[in-house]
Amino acid sequence: MFLQLLVAALLSGSIYGMIALGYSLIYRTSGIMNLAQGDAICLGGFLGYTFYSILGLPVLVAIPCTLVCTFLIGCMLERVVIRPIFKRNVSTSALILATVAVSYIIQSIELIIWGGAPLHMRSFLKVTNVKILNVVYQTEALLCIGVAVVAMLSLHIFMKKSSFGIAMRAAAMDHAAARSCGINVDLTTRMTWAISISLAGLVGVFIGPLYGVTTTLGTNLSAKGFASAVVGGYGDMYGGILGGATLAMLETFSAGYISSSLKQMVAYIAVLIMLFVKPRGLLNVEAVKD
Amino acid sequence: MNKALNINKGKLLRYAPVAVLAVLMPLFFRNFSYGMLLICFCAIYIIAVSGLDILYGYTGQISFATSAFFGIGGYGSLLLHNHTGLPIIITMLIASVISCVVALILAYPVSKLRFAFLSLATISFNHIIFQLVTRSPGGITGDFNGAFTEHMNIFGLDLKESWKFYYFALVCVVIFVSIKSMIVNSRVGRAFLAIKQNLHAADGMGINVRKYKVYAFGLYGFYAGFAGSMYVHLVGYISPETVAQQQSVIFMIMILMGGVCSNWGPVVGAVAIILLQEILSHAEQYQLLVYGIILLIFILFLPGGIVGETKKLFSRLKWRKKGVINA
After folding, report:
1. DSSP 8-state class, residue A3
2. Interchain proximity A276–B135, CB inside 8 Å
3. Spatial distance between the Cα atoms of A96 and B116, rounded to a whole number of angstroms
4. Domain range spanning residue B127?
5. Nearest Cα to Cα of residue B64 among A201, A271, A42
6. pLDDT tens digits for B174-191?
7. Which of A175, B201, B232, B326 holds its CA 20 to 30 A away from the CA of A28?
8. Taking CA atoms, what residue in A is nearest to B61?
9. Other Cβ atoms within 10 Å of A209 Cβ, number
């Protein structure tokens, strides 16, 4: 029981963590909350479904294709929607609403192209269950956790070691100073959006076989994502991961040991409590101003 | 004093045709009761959106929890009426007060947050209310099936037909909108505006920022709650969909579309969205697309909303007539 719950918690933790990572990256560079993050997950799922199940491409081709597509969509989103809004100097609340508008537009485009019925994606692996120490695990879940860990590690290395990653972090810290050092801030901002959206897309592909792909899948997950970001510390990469893990543990174990009706509520209660008591999150991030 | 009275007289004269039109409205819809029902919905949304205008338009606080308070008012009145049998008008008031109190309790800690984090907190609150409604203890709210209650009556005077309800709603709208206009033109309203313009300057001027933010939330909760209780007794039924997150965004679209900081903004916004919903009712998959595009257009190009932009246009025309070049 405990081990199975732990794997379930790690699964949702890795999903939440990746989404929270996307939120935090965007918050750091653009200073806004991207409420369309959840729809990027769906988009990833749908694109993955198209490449893998409809076009019948092999896994190792379908997933990179999805990643490239979501990456380009992220670039486009920043260039076509977000940057023009920033140029107009609208208020922060209007910016948040603009991302809601983007989320609606993405959702309805998905609805028009792929329809409202949930799509069932074929499993990526031939083996569906593995038995370790007398406990049966879903291989998809293990795969998803593995992919999340790899993605997080590679993002960490990219941000810390590569010069472009360092430039991205510098631009996030101070736009003007980074610009005067010769960093192309517009480019780093766009890349940050693209990376965040493609991270969400990656999540979408891998949860496709687990949950099925629907247009409403994102709404719930995006809410869990920002919940994890708040719990861990909004605006910090590692905070998002930590928050995702913490939240998933809380959720899964409260559902497993107390009551399953609690599961949906725990995350939101955690957000409210964290925002009231410790808005800087577990990692004491200074991103939360005012 | 005299001047104020004069302005009021002028305003009253200007409103007279509108008032006559509003009173005679059921005559135009004699053979079209569905249209009357839609107008009743408009009236309900006008009240809720007016409350949101106090919070978002005047105080500058974003909220994605309007439908939660709407639901608290609706479900509150329904449960009170079904279980205690109190007269509907009293349960409506009690439910609105409950909604107001909940808003005050939420606002006290929430008022230290701004923009992004305020929106997160309100989204979370809305989700919590939605979960409570759909997984209520003992199933008293009917969970996903929704719940039924009696139609509106005031101490035995039956208001089941929509044209009768319409007059009740009209009175409510007039009362709520005038209370709102009284509040926003008072000391409290000026404090709200100061907080919206510049929080720190308002603080420096001696305005108790937190207190006024909490006031704004309380008023907003009362307005939304009352609108919700009206809704439940007009329809006689409420489903969890009314409390869903998306409904809150629709309220935001109404206020942005109509225009903030005016008495007519919520009216125009509510009517426009109701009309739009009717037009799009056969093409549901395009509904979200249209909402998204409308939101973007109003944020990017028409930040004053329909009312604000029309006012701007008129003032520009007036200046041009006078021969003053308007840069």
Report:
1. H
2. no
3. 7
4. 32-291
5. A271
6. 999 999 999 989 999 999
7. B201
8. A93
9. 25
